Protein backbone atom coordinates (compact mmCIF):
# COMPACT_ATOMS: atom_id res chain seq x y z
CA UNK A 1 0.00 0.00 0.00
CA UNK A 2 1.16 3.51 -0.84
CA UNK A 3 -0.33 6.66 0.68
CA UNK A 4 -0.49 9.98 -1.16
CA UNK A 5 -1.14 13.18 0.80
CA UNK A 6 -2.29 16.37 -0.92
CA UNK A 7 -2.01 19.68 0.91
CA UNK A 8 -3.41 23.01 -0.20
CA UNK A 9 -0.35 24.49 -1.92
CA UNK A 10 -0.57 26.44 -5.20
CA UNK A 11 -2.10 24.33 -7.98
CA UNK A 12 0.58 25.38 -10.49
CA UNK A 13 3.18 23.49 -8.45
CA UNK A 14 1.22 20.23 -8.26
CA UNK A 15 1.97 17.52 -10.88
CA UNK A 16 -0.70 15.36 -12.51
CA UNK A 17 -2.17 13.47 -9.55
CA UNK A 18 -3.68 10.77 -11.74
CA UNK A 19 -0.16 9.52 -12.49
CA UNK A 20 0.20 8.12 -8.96
CA UNK A 21 -1.42 5.02 -7.51
CA UNK A 22 -2.37 4.35 -3.90
CA UNK A 23 -4.73 5.73 -1.29
CA UNK A 24 -5.35 9.48 -1.15
CA UNK A 25 -5.42 11.68 1.93
CA UNK A 26 -6.49 15.30 1.71
CA UNK A 27 -5.18 18.04 3.98
CA UNK A 28 -7.29 21.17 4.36
CA UNK A 29 -7.86 22.76 0.93
CA UNK A 30 -6.16 19.79 -0.70
CA UNK A 31 -9.33 17.79 0.01
CA UNK A 32 -11.30 20.13 -2.26
CA UNK A 33 -8.71 19.73 -5.03
CA UNK A 34 -8.91 15.94 -4.87
CA UNK A 35 -12.69 15.98 -5.12
CA UNK A 36 -12.57 18.33 -8.11
CA UNK A 37 -9.98 16.05 -9.76
CA UNK A 38 -12.38 13.12 -9.41
CA UNK A 39 -10.03 11.29 -7.02
CA UNK A 40 -11.59 9.32 -4.17
CA UNK A 41 -10.55 10.72 -0.77
CA UNK A 42 -9.86 7.86 1.64
CA UNK A 43 -9.28 10.20 4.59
CA UNK A 44 -9.12 13.95 5.22
CA UNK A 45 -7.53 16.12 7.91
CA UNK A 46 -7.67 19.80 8.66
CA UNK A 47 -9.02 22.81 10.46
CA UNK A 48 -10.32 23.94 7.05
CA UNK A 49 -9.60 27.59 7.73
CA UNK A 50 -8.56 27.98 4.07
CA UNK A 51 -11.97 27.05 2.61
CA UNK A 52 -15.24 28.96 2.56
CA UNK A 53 -18.31 27.72 4.41
CA UNK A 54 -20.00 26.43 1.26
CA UNK A 55 -16.79 24.66 0.20
CA UNK A 56 -16.60 22.90 3.56
CA UNK A 57 -20.20 21.78 3.16
CA UNK A 58 -19.26 20.43 -0.29
CA UNK A 59 -16.32 18.54 1.24
CA UNK A 60 -18.48 17.01 3.99
CA UNK A 61 -20.93 15.80 1.35
CA UNK A 62 -18.19 13.92 -0.57
CA UNK A 63 -15.86 12.62 2.17
CA UNK A 64 -16.84 10.05 4.79
CA UNK A 65 -13.54 9.86 6.69
CA UNK A 66 -13.19 13.52 7.69
CA UNK A 67 -11.24 14.56 10.80
CA UNK A 68 -11.57 18.22 11.72
CA UNK A 69 -9.45 20.09 14.26
CA UNK A 70 -9.47 23.60 15.75
CA UNK A 71 -7.07 26.14 14.18
CA UNK A 72 -5.34 26.57 17.56
CA UNK A 73 -3.37 23.34 18.00
CA UNK A 74 0.20 22.14 18.53
CA UNK A 75 0.56 20.24 15.22
CA UNK A 76 -0.03 21.40 11.67
CA UNK A 77 -2.70 19.68 9.60
CA UNK A 78 0.08 18.09 7.54
CA UNK A 79 1.79 16.66 10.64
CA UNK A 80 -1.48 15.12 11.79
CA UNK A 81 -1.94 13.51 8.37
CA UNK A 82 1.63 12.19 8.23
CA UNK A 83 1.44 10.79 11.77
CA UNK A 84 -1.68 8.87 10.78
CA UNK A 85 -0.10 7.68 7.52
CA UNK A 86 3.04 6.38 9.27
CA UNK A 87 0.90 4.28 11.63
CA UNK A 88 -0.64 2.52 8.60
CA UNK A 89 2.83 1.16 7.73
CA UNK A 90 2.63 1.83 3.99
CA UNK A 91 5.40 1.02 1.52
CA UNK A 92 5.76 4.71 0.66
CA UNK A 93 4.27 8.11 1.51
CA UNK A 94 4.14 10.85 -1.12
CA UNK A 95 3.35 14.46 -0.28
CA UNK A 96 1.97 16.93 -2.82
CA UNK A 97 0.93 20.56 -2.52
CA UNK A 98 3.61 21.20 0.09
CA UNK A 99 5.76 23.66 -1.89
CA UNK A 100 5.37 27.00 -3.61
CA UNK A 101 3.39 28.77 -0.91
CA UNK A 102 4.40 30.12 2.49
CA UNK A 103 8.06 29.44 3.35
CA UNK A 104 7.28 28.58 6.98
CA UNK A 105 4.92 25.85 5.81
CA UNK A 106 7.48 24.62 3.28
CA UNK A 107 10.30 24.33 5.82
CA UNK A 108 7.96 22.68 8.33
CA UNK A 109 7.01 20.12 5.66
CA UNK A 110 10.69 19.45 4.94
CA UNK A 111 11.22 18.80 8.65
CA UNK A 112 8.35 16.29 8.60
CA UNK A 113 10.34 14.08 6.22
CA UNK A 114 12.37 13.20 9.32
CA UNK A 115 9.35 12.04 11.32
CA UNK A 116 9.56 8.30 10.49
CA UNK A 117 13.27 8.26 11.37
CA UNK A 118 12.50 9.85 14.74
CA UNK A 119 10.22 6.88 15.49
CA UNK A 120 12.64 4.31 14.02
CA UNK A 121 10.27 3.66 11.13
CA UNK A 122 11.74 2.99 7.69
CA UNK A 123 8.82 4.08 5.51
CA UNK A 124 10.20 6.40 2.80
CA UNK A 125 8.55 9.81 2.37
CA UNK A 126 8.85 12.07 -0.69
CA UNK A 127 7.74 15.63 -1.33
CA UNK A 128 6.88 15.92 -5.02
CA UNK A 129 6.05 18.95 -7.15
CA UNK A 130 6.33 19.75 -10.86
CA UNK A 131 10.05 20.53 -10.52
CA UNK A 132 11.46 18.38 -7.72
CA UNK A 133 11.35 15.18 -5.69
CA UNK A 134 12.71 15.63 -2.15
CA UNK A 135 13.57 12.85 0.31
CA UNK A 136 15.88 12.03 3.23
CA UNK A 137 18.24 9.06 3.60
CA UNK A 138 20.14 7.82 6.64
CA UNK A 139 23.73 6.57 6.90
CA UNK A 140 24.31 3.38 4.93
CA UNK A 141 24.38 2.34 1.28
CA UNK A 142 21.61 3.36 -1.10
CA UNK A 143 20.94 2.59 -4.76
CA UNK A 144 19.42 5.25 -7.00
CA UNK A 145 18.15 4.69 -10.53
CA UNK A 146 18.65 7.09 -13.41
CA UNK A 147 15.60 9.17 -14.30
CA UNK A 148 16.11 11.44 -17.29
CA UNK A 149 12.98 13.38 -16.40
CA UNK A 150 14.65 14.46 -13.13
CA UNK A 151 18.27 14.39 -14.25
CA UNK A 152 19.83 16.71 -11.67
CA UNK A 153 20.53 15.21 -8.24
CA UNK A 154 21.64 17.29 -5.28
CA UNK A 155 22.77 16.10 -1.85
CA UNK A 156 22.46 18.42 1.14
CA UNK A 157 23.41 17.63 4.76
CA UNK A 158 20.18 17.72 6.75
CA UNK A 159 21.37 17.27 10.33
CA UNK A 160 24.99 18.17 11.04
CA UNK A 161 27.94 16.89 9.05
CA UNK A 162 27.62 13.95 6.64
CA UNK A 163 30.72 11.77 6.99
CA UNK A 164 32.36 9.43 4.50
CA UNK A 165 30.17 10.29 1.51
CA UNK A 166 30.96 8.15 -1.54
CA UNK A 167 29.17 8.60 -4.87
CA UNK A 168 29.60 5.98 -7.61
CA UNK A 169 28.10 6.20 -11.09
CA UNK A 170 27.80 9.99 -10.98
CA UNK A 171 29.24 12.71 -13.23
CA UNK A 172 31.01 14.11 -10.18
CA UNK A 173 32.05 11.10 -8.05
CA UNK A 174 33.20 11.34 -4.45
CA UNK A 175 35.18 9.06 -2.18
CA UNK A 176 34.87 9.24 1.61
CA UNK A 177 34.28 13.00 1.72
CA UNK A 178 33.01 14.78 4.81
CA UNK A 179 30.31 17.33 3.89
CA UNK A 180 29.66 20.07 6.47
CA UNK A 181 26.16 21.50 6.79
CA UNK A 182 27.13 24.79 5.07
CA UNK A 183 28.65 23.10 1.98
CA UNK A 184 27.29 23.39 -1.57
CA UNK A 185 29.73 20.80 -2.94
CA UNK A 186 27.02 18.29 -3.87
CA UNK A 187 24.58 20.55 -5.72
CA UNK A 188 23.51 19.65 -9.31
CA UNK A 189 25.18 16.29 -9.83
CA UNK A 190 24.00 13.84 -12.52
CA UNK A 191 23.97 10.09 -12.99
CA UNK A 192 26.08 8.84 -15.90
CA UNK A 193 25.19 5.19 -15.24
CA UNK A 194 21.76 3.57 -15.13
CA UNK A 195 22.26 2.99 -11.41
CA UNK A 196 24.25 5.00 -8.88
CA UNK A 197 25.42 4.17 -5.37
CA UNK A 198 25.33 6.58 -2.44
CA UNK A 199 27.01 5.59 0.80
CA UNK A 200 28.02 7.44 3.96
CA UNK A 201 28.87 6.46 7.52
CA UNK A 202 27.21 9.17 9.58
CA UNK A 203 24.52 11.84 9.25
CA UNK A 204 21.30 12.39 7.34
CA UNK A 205 21.30 13.45 3.71
CA UNK A 206 18.61 15.31 1.82
CA UNK A 207 18.30 14.12 -1.78
CA UNK A 208 16.69 16.48 -4.30
CA UNK A 209 16.01 15.29 -7.83
CA UNK A 210 15.17 18.17 -10.19
CA UNK A 211 14.04 18.79 -13.75
CA UNK A 212 15.79 21.22 -16.07
Whole-Å distance between the termini? 31 Å
According to CATH, the fold-level topology of the largest domain is Rossmann fold
Mean pLDDT: 90
Please tell me the total number of domains: 2
Percent of sequence in beta strands: 35-45%
The CATH H-level superfamily of the largest domain is Thiamin pyrophosphokinase, catalytic domain
Order of helices and strands: EEHEHEHEHHEEEEEEE
For the sheet with most strands, the description reads: 12 strands, mixed
Radius of gyration: 18 Å
Number of strands: 12
Just give the CATH class of the largest domain.
Alpha Beta
Low-confidence stretches: none
CATH architecture of the largest domain: 3-Layer(aba) Sandwich
Structural class: alpha/beta
Task: Please give a handful of descriptors for the protein shown.
alpha/beta; Rossmann fold; elongated; Thi_PPkinase; TPK; Thiamin_PyroPKinase_B1-bd; Thiamine diphosphokinase
How would you describe the overall organization of this protein?
This protein folds into two domains: 129 residues, Thiamin pyrophosphokinase, catalytic domain (Rossmann fold), CATH 3.40.50.10240; 77 residues, 3-Layer(aba) Sandwich (Rossmann fold), CATH 3.40.50.10240. Helix content is 20%, strand content 36%. It contains five helices and twelve strands. Strands 1, 2, 3, 4, 5, 6, 7, 8, 9, 10, 11 and 12 form a twelve-stranded mixed β-sheet that branches. The two termini are 31 Å apart. It holds the Pfam family TPK_catalytic. Its EC number is 2.7.6.2.
